[in-house]
Amino acid sequence: MSENDRKLHREAALTAGRPAPHIPPRRTKAHRIKDDSEALAVARELAHEFAPGAAVRDRERRLPIAEIDRFSQSGLWAITVPKSYGGAGVSAVTLAEVTAIISAADSSIGQIPQNHFYMVEALRLAGSEEQKRHFFARILDGDRLGNAFTEIGTKTPVDFKTSLRKADGKLLLNGQKFYSTGSLFAHIIAAVAKDDNGRVNIVFIDRATPGLDLVDDWTSFGQRSTGSGTVTFDDVEVTAFQVVDHDGVFERPTPMGPFAQIIHSAVQVGLARGALLETISYVRAHARPFFELSIEHGYEDPHTVYAVGDVSIRVHAADALLFRAGRLLDIAIENPTEDTVAAASIAVAEVKTLGTEVAQLAATKLIELGGARSTLESYGLDRFWRNARTHSLHDPVRWKYHHIGNYYLNGLLPPRHGAI
Q1: Which residues are in the Acyl-CoA oxidase/dehydrogenase middle domain (predicted)?
Q2: I need a labelling partner for 74 at 20 to 30 A (CA). Which of 143, 284, 394, 416 fits?
Q3: What span, in angstroms and rounded, lies between the C-alpha atoms of 105 and 107?
Q4: Which of 113, 144, 175 finishes a domain?
Q5: Close Cβ partners of 262 (under 8 Å, ≥ 6 residues apart)
Q6: 128-176 confidence digits (pLDDT tens)
Q7: What domain range is 116 assigned to?
Q8: In Å, how far are 137, 389, 411, 417 from 161, measured between CA atoms?
């Protein structure tokens, strides 16, 4: 990398941002979760802990460093490590439900490990035996993977300028990433880069590696505490052991795409659940009746009763689709074929579309039924809509409708990539 390019990379990365927080090395090994039922129980316990501070973290853009440490040390970040490597190897149904449970409490925290789980799945599908043993052991002990995937300024979100090139006998990583969810909390950064042959690879880099810079410059109006900012790689020297072929997992039928997407779907379903629960709680406690009605409480208003019933039905439908998608994804994981992977992709796309719509509907009804006082900043109720709207932009739902329609109407299988 030239000195001028290096200077431009650093200046772009450090503009209007804060230095990355210090993440100390782990002092103890994480708890090891044994099975699906324990994973769900631990998720419910953590959601109970995380929910009370969600509004304040959102309002102050406070990074949930302590919460993420609690999350990963609980063992939940290692639940997809296969049983043959010492993990719980939980089902996709359980992974989705864990994500939804946490996201109902705080959707930023729920989203943060999405790319961690994606990279664990990449290792499972494409890693060498030695890579699996090494990285799975670290993950089981509590190390977190952070995302360095998408870039700004390319033609599409899946075009990459970040390069992995051989120079003077060294393998060097250069480039810059944005939307790097989870990177600020990570022990290992998983970067996506093109090699000399134009193939896309995942490169696993320890956080303290020279030339790797993290910047807290995420300023979106929603998902404020995901820390999805900038990562810069400036002649970062790596070895072949740190590289996993990313293209290969989409060149054959694998569950990689629907696996990635079911976690995003679960974030939306969790947001819908959280907004509905907040609506019921707030309306019961604070909503006043319309003056034309001769009733004592706002929750007796027939229009309010109807609206809560309507949203409840839609949230429960999204719950059912999430479970169904998990079941079909588990089939594709067990037996990956063109047909099973396509069925899983479509099922996940269905829950993503409905979950996205219901999350925004529930968040809107929360404010509508709560009344004017519900807009006060002190309640922080607007975060549900802001978070649902922001997270929905990760990949366009309109294209999911297109692939779903083509699948059922024309018998066309969806493409294989990380957004379907």
Answers
A1: 149-236
A2: 394
A3: 7
A4: 144
A5: 92, 95, 96, 322, 325, 326, 329, 348, 351
A6: 999 999 999 999 999 999 999 999 888 888 889 999 999 999 999 999 9
A7: 16-144
A8: 31, 28, 36, 19
